[in-house]
Amino acid sequence: MILVWLITILFAGGIGAWLSEKRNPELPRVIALATILLDLFLVVLMLVAPGVLGLDSASQAELGQTGEWLILSSSEWIPRFGVAFIFGADGLGLLLITLTVFLGLMSLGSAWNEIKERTGFFYFNLLWTLAGVIGVFTALDLFLFFFFWEVMLIPMYFIIAIWGHENKEYAAMKFFIFTQVSGMLMLLAILMLVFFHYQSTGEFTFSYFDLLGTAIPDGFGFWVMLGFFIAFATKLPTVPFHNWLPDAHSQAPTPGSVILAGILLKTGAYGLIRFTIPLFPEVSADFAPTAMLLGVISILYTAKVAFSQNDLKRLIAYTSVSHMGFVMLGVYAWTSQGVQGAVMTMLAHGFSAAALFMLAGGLQHRIHTRQMDKMGGLWGVAPKMGFMAVFFTVAAVGMPGLGNFIGEFLVLLGSFRISIAAASLAAIGMVVAAVYSLIVIQKVFHGENKNNLVVEDLTTVEMICFGFMMIGLLWMGMYPQSMLNMSEPTLRSLGVLFFQ
Amino acid sequence: MSVLFYGSAIIAVLATLLVITRTNIVHALLYFIVSLLAIAVIFYTLGAPFAAALEIIVYAGAIMVMFLFVVMMLNLGQVTQDQEKAWLTPSVWIGPSIMAVPLLVAVIYAINLNQEQMAHTVVGGKEIGVALFGPYVLAVELASMLLLAGLVGAYHLARK
Amino acid sequence: MLDLLWLVPVIPFIGFLILTLTFGKLPQLAAGIVGAGSIGLSFVFAFLAGSSFLGAEISSYSQTLWTWMSVGDLEVGFTLYLDGVSLVMMYVITGIGFLIHVYATGYMSGDPSFARFFSYMNLFVSAMLILVLADNLALLFMGWEGVGLCSYLLIGFWYKDPNNGYCARKAFVMTRVGDAFMAIGLFTLFVSTGTLNIQEAMLEAEAQWVVGSGVATAVTLLLLGGAVGKSAQLPLQTWLPDAMAGPTPISALIHAATMVTAGVYLIARTHVLYLLAPEVQYLVGVIGAITLLMAGFTALTQSDIKKVLAFSTVSQIGYMFLALGVGAWSSAIFHLMTHAFFKALLFLTAGSIILAMHHEQDIFKMGGLRKDLRWSHALFLIGTLGLVAFPGFSGFFSKEEILATAMENHDGGYILYLAGLLGAVMTYLYSFRLYFLVFYGKKTHDGHEVMGLHLQGPLVLLAIGAVFAGFIHIPVEGVFPEMEEHHPSVMAQAAMILLPMLGGLLAWWVFVKGKVDTEKLAGQGFGAKLHRFWFTQWGMDWLYDKIIVTPYTWLAEVNKNDFIDSIYNGSARAVRFCHEVMSETQTGELRWYAISIAYGLLLLVVLGVLL
Amino acid sequence: MYSNLIIDLMQIIMLTISTVVVMMTTAFKRDHGLISGLTVFGLFASLLTFVFIQPVLPLEATQLLIIDEYSLFFSNLIIVGAIGVALLAYPYFQNHNVQNEEFYILLMTATLGAVVLACSNHFVSFLLGMEMMGVSLYAMIAYPVHAAKSAKFPLEAGVKYLILSALTSGITLFGIALVYAYIGTMGFDEIPAALEAAGELGPVFLIGVLMIVAGAAFKLSLVPFHIWTPDVYEGAPVPVTAFLATVSKAAMLAVTLRLLLVSNAIELNVVTTVLTVMAAVSIIFGNLLALLQENVKRLFAYSSIAHLGYLLVIIIAAAKIPGALSVEGVSFYMLAYFVMSLSGFAVISALSNSEKEYDQLADFRGLFWRNSWVSAVLITVLLSLAGIPLTAGFIGKFYIFTTGVESELWFLLTMLIIGSAIGLYYYLRLIYIMLQPAEDDANDPAAVSLPLGAHAVMAAMTAAIIYLGVYPAPMIDTLQSLASAF
Amino acid sequence: MEMPTVTMQVIPMEHGLLLAAILFIMGMVGVLTRRNLVFILMSLEIMLNATGLAFIVASSHWGQVDGQIMFLMILSLAAAEVAVALGLVLQLFQKRKTLDINVLGEMKG
């Protein structure tokens, strides 16, 4: 039930924030903060002292599951189609929930001073997005999963469409259509899967556990898998489904970008790990080379595109795609290192990309442009900002000691075992990452301050946020084992190749 | 009997053709009435005298007269007739007429049954009456509501 | 005291944190104390740990701090490993590093970003220490990348000049190319041996690999790629001269004398693998030989005092590679150490000269400074003598060992020997060219020695080292395979000592006596071309620009708007177009509507008849 | 027996009585409020009679009508729709300076026709129901034709609807005639037996069926019989448009589905093919046409074309899977679509009156900030139309996908996805416009006082959308039981 | 009671239906070609009348009452429809002083 509470609290908090605006426009953010903190408290409690919450294994037994599931609960929803509320979290889920709540807090921090208009509705959307994401990470009924998959989409659309920048209509529309259409493909695939299960067992069910190992008639498996794959690859995103991302990220307000880059992209990777491959092991194995190729292309191609961007946020957005290429590569290598690396990349990229977007957003907020050729020499006026920029850029480049390195290193190592060529090409990504990342520092913070921009350095709120994210990245970089240990049982149960 | 049928059929077709090609509304109406009368004869040959009577009384007698009233009321004169002439150019009617040919062909093809014959019975007014107040009693009631709707609608719309 | 080993890299890191997180708020004095003091403290712990290590008479010591990552069969600990080689490296880094820091407190005083400078320096030392103390290749890679980062930060330290930024990026990217190779090498090694632990991997490799087998060749080649990038050897050396953009001359020193030896260290560390791939090992030597010659020629044409020294460094590292290539492992490390002393001395003295000349770095604008700058002159001379391996000075012992081994080496080592010998001549030539141009000849500018304990103090200590370091015995037995004692004939020894001196004479003849008009020689005809060719490092930069940089930027520029996007936008336009066309059907004309219904009916009926 | 018959027909009887009562009252006292109140009351009374009807189901009331759970469901839906329309009509016509009372009589007769249509089991009642609805609608569409300043083009819309509708009625009737000529019976449920007796399928029968399909397609606005939809939707007064979009469609759909299933016509290859083509083309054309539409009523019209195309997918699926699931799906989707449309038109209606309709896209700019409640309703409707979870539209779409997958209609599902993708664009466009800051504009539709009735409709329908979207299980159970008859 | 049986000469049902079809399509062509609203209405009447004929033919074929009942219903439908339609004709003429339906083309797109 604790998972349901996590979601419900966010839903309720969102409504509360919306309603409270009438009373005082400052109130919504306070309510949002309280809500997220409450969630964070629960999450931490789950991590640290699960016993306090009465998390037991009785419900697991009830569903016939054992082992990895830390939390599991279920109740009926639409019995006609065997749709049920099944919520569960294992190590992987818990990691991602933690990431979600934490980055939710960060995005709240970035919204704190930036969002001045229509605050109530903004925080409503923010909290509902988070709720949707947590739902995605915990739903174990495919219908429910799809439900949340879409729920996280709408508020995000509102965030972009209302608080976005100059080209928001286009961006919001593109974002919505891409995800929605790919989502429909997934719905179709889910239903096909359910139908095939029904054909072989005579029972309608959407339960993840029941659908695992469904026998799919020859020739259909690939298409069903593809439906899932495209949905997740779009969300991840992978070339050639990535085009919504640069627009959405660059047009979204900072908190929106933070959530998009930090959390929403991860749902795609999560879907691949949790659903696509375990549900269709054989087909996925056949498909893996293609997927890995797509991953490699994503890494290299978008790195190249990123390099030529002048719009700071757009550049960062493209780098996100590049980094997510590593995730794709690692996941489809389907070796322990590869998938663990993908998980680490997800977590670390959540932090680094979110931080970079916060920086870019902060800059835009201060100097009202994202064009890098109008910036320059900002180090002199905003050294803290410069330092943070360097830190997070360096993290994104994959500097050892910071989280991203662990992810990329493991991904490369894991995929090297499967395909030397893919891993070697992806390793070039390390070089091109350096090329595009450093150009940011160069254009924004180095050089002369030609336009005599006066930039207020980071505020306390921002410093706190960045500080947390720095610590997070360092933690991931220096002691990733704490996270690897959490996700390992999950991956074992999902059938990842473990070389011993 | 068959002479009567085919003769009336020819008259009906010709009269109808004239209806849709006339430019003078009153002439057209008169041809229409001719056509209706011919069809009434056909009804009779088919053993439906009651329908034949209704065709004349209701259709020719009531509905057409309603048309006539309206035409008279609007006092459409020569101008309208000229206008009609101008409108009815080949470019306007050729398209629909050509379209009508395949449609007709298709329908003819479809109804080309095995020369099934029509019954030899006459179904008169009494049987109809029995049916109307037997199994079709609801239909009568509903038809009254239909007429009511027409009445109210016409009342409302025809108001100045 | 060995268990305090972890403090050695950690203390500089703490220094870095303190300096960074205060964001320049720290007063200069405090920043200096933290910056230099942390290295000093680190040196103390290094010394303590080192002496107990030597006292304990063990061949190696490892200290696991925590498990870094353990995924499947991958087990990487955060483990420090100390043996003879890393001990030497640790001493060099902390010791010389400390002197450099002290010197820098004087040199950098007054710079607005004083604290930032020291924070980078501290981070650098910390990373370098991790690099040399790493027990496994992943951790080594962490240090490896860390020094690369610091190098980037230091080159771009004066960020206002966009050129500095460019140079910094170039350095970072080029070394990253090497790093990518190295990373792939690590993966190959791991997949093949199942471990990233250096010692275990070497044992496994020895047990599994056949000499000269494909995997051995691949792994060593890839690792060599990394080493070549970091150590600025052919063909990835072009970043180094640009790296001189950093604060004079300290960061230059970092690049030229400390960080670049990482490649040598890496190859020495994994020498067992190279022994299993003799061709690659020979290639290492060849690369070293070519680089040392090329850098020698280039050094001869440079006019910036720092760049001359930088190329001399490249050249000396070429010697170390040469040594590795012929299997003179310990000699390579030995030369690395002696080189650290005299090159640090040279750089820092050059710094003093630059300071005295009010930040003038062009050697043609110097001259006749031996009177004005007595201290610098003396120290610089000592350094130069060390560099040219003048008998009795530190460089002599190490270089002699290398050449001797090369000569004795029978598998093609002789060519390497000859290259080394020629390189020695070149060394004399360019070193004394520099020396003479700066301290002899006509005096054109005034210079005033800037004095101070924190400036001259370290220099004197370094000078002592530069002279006597050759007598230090480095404790690397047991790490490397036993080398047979080389006893070259007297003639050969004499040739080795005397022949290079000709270069010195030539320099004297040309630059002091003025017998040859160098400007004329370099300014006309073939000489000019040759000069240009040498000056631009044999056209490598140009080549890279043409075959990599330009096409890449062109490609990026062409596809700025991401052509995949136009596919989606195109389909959106197509839909829009369809909409326009469709809308035309809604004409509003009743007759048309009726006709469309009739046609619809026709369609249906025809379908019905046909089907 | 007779008492049961009377109970069965109670709804129809109540409607008839109410019609007469309203008419008589009008004759004595013309009072807009009174008449509209009476109408709503009469409709409510008719609706509530289902409580009595429920226990005696199913029963054939003569051969013309069949009252079973299925028809009762649709009758209830129709009456609810009519109540909604009546509630919307009152404020809409409040300022209409000529007589309003006839409108309610017409509304009643149209509703009666729709109910008859939904219950009909025989071509005679089919004809009567359809035409009763049709004739009333001609007048309703053109209703404000007298007003000096009418909101739209009621005359144009009325004439267009009348002529085109009469044309297709003719086609339908001719089709019925052909069918009758071939099999000799006009009761739906007697068709299979009669067909069997007739031996092989004659083309006459097929063409007759197709002509009937054409007539139904016209009322359901399926391509190529869709062409009247936007003009009539736009020209008609909003409450009437709402009626057209909801009641008229629901009734026609109910009877068409029954006809297709009971007569087994759906299993005819020709019919399936024709329906497939119609569905695919409707989905694509409807969405394409709506793409850049600037008038919200027309937008809804085009989107209704697409939605009926979606619905057709479920109907086609009935050819391969048990009819019950299909009926269940159609009923659910129709219910969802009904609720969404009514809610959507309620919003437009609430902002409009008989003299000025706010139906341009530009009129909605900034509505979210001026009147959050109304615009939230519209956003919910649009999201539901787009098939986003939490709304009834999603469950509806879920049914389409489920039935489509089960009967392996891959082609139609592909069309569905393409169509929905296009559809997203215009739904989002409208949402986007509402979310943008308002320009300073004197024509502020939100300034119009919002009447209670419209609020009630909006509130009820929105609640229904959300309820059906979040917890559809009870409704699904109901539909499952009503579908079990097929 | 026995129905009086009148022996008639044989007329095939096809011919009856054929006549109905011809009339029906002529009516349809009339609807499509004319611009005058009254003519269009008349054409619609032709169509309705043709369907009535078809029902009578069919009912005659089957010897049933049902077809004739249907004809009756069509009659009342025609009456109701024409009543409303003529109301619209009056309105059109009153408003636009013409019966040309092409003036009713303001809504499109």
Structure summarized in a few sentences:
The complex is a heteropentamer of chains A (500), B (160), C (611), D (486) and E (109). Chain B is mainly α and 160 residues long.
Please tell me about this protein's structure.
The complex is a heteropentamer of chains A (500), B (160), C (611), D (486) and E (109). By secondary structure, chain A is mainly alpha-helical. Chain A has a domain at 292-500. Chain A is 74% helix and 3% strand. Chain A is built from 21 helices and two strands. Chain A has a two-stranded antiparallel ribbon. The longest helix of chain A is centred in the middle third of the chain and has 34 residues, at 168-201. Chain B has helices at 2-21, 25-45, 49-74, 78-87, 90-110, 125-132, 137-158. With 160 residues, chain B is an all-alpha fold. Chain B is built from seven helices and no strands. Among the domains of chain C are: 160-516, no CATH class; 561-610. Chain C has helices spanning 7-21, 28-56, 84-107, 114-133, 137-155, 162-193, 198-208, 214-230, 239-243, 250-258, 262-269, 271-276, 278-301, 305-325, 329-356, 374-388, 394-408, 413-439, 453-468, 490-512, 518-523, 525-535, 540-558, 563-585, 590-610, and strands at 61-71, 74-82. In chain C, α6 runs antiparallel to α8 (214-230), α10 (250-258) packs parallel to α14 and α16 packs parallel to α19. Chain D has one domain. The mean pLDDT of chain D is 89. In chain D, α7 runs antiparallel to α8. In chain D, 74% of the residues are buried. In chain D, β1 and β2 (65-67) form a beta hairpin. Chain D has helices at 2-8, 10-28, 32-48, 50-53, 69-93, 101-119, 123-141, 154-183, 191-198, 203-219, 229-235, 238-262, 269-290, 296-317, 323-351, 367-370, 372-386, 392-406, 410-435, 452-470, 473-483, and strands spanning 59-61, 65-67. Chains B and E meet through α1, α2, α3, α4 and α5 of B and α1, α2 and α3 of E.
